[in-house]
Amino acid sequence: MPAYDNVKIARKISRPTALDYIDHIFEDFVELHGDRGFRDDKAVIGGIASINGIPVTVIGIQKGKTMEENIERNFGQPHPEGYRKALRLMEQAEKFHRPIINLINTSGAYPGLGAEERGQGEAIAKNLMVMANLRTPTISVIIGEGGSGGALALAVTDRVWMLENSVYAVLSPEGFASILWKDAKRAKEAADLMKITAEDLLDMGVIEKVIKEVDGGCQNDFGFTANLMKAKLESELEILMAKDIDTLLKERYNRFRSFGEFKE
Amino acid sequence: MKLIDNIKGGLDKISVETLKERAEAIKNALPKVSEKKEEKPETKEEIPEDCIKCPSCNNIIEKKSLGSLKICPNCAKLFRMNAKDRIKAIADEGSFKEMDINMEAANPLNFPDYSAKIKGLQEKTGLKDAVKTGTCTIGGYRCVIGVMDSGFMMGSMGSVVGEKLTRVFEYGTEHKLPVIIFTCSGGARMQEGIVSLMQMAKVSAAVAKHSEAGQLYVTVLTDPTTGGVTASFAMLGDIILAEPKTLIGFAGRRVIEQTIKQKLPDEFQTSEFLLEHGFVDAIVEREKLPDTLKTILKLHNCKKEVE
Question: In the predicted model, is pLDDT for residue B41 greater than 70?
Answer without folding.
Answer: no
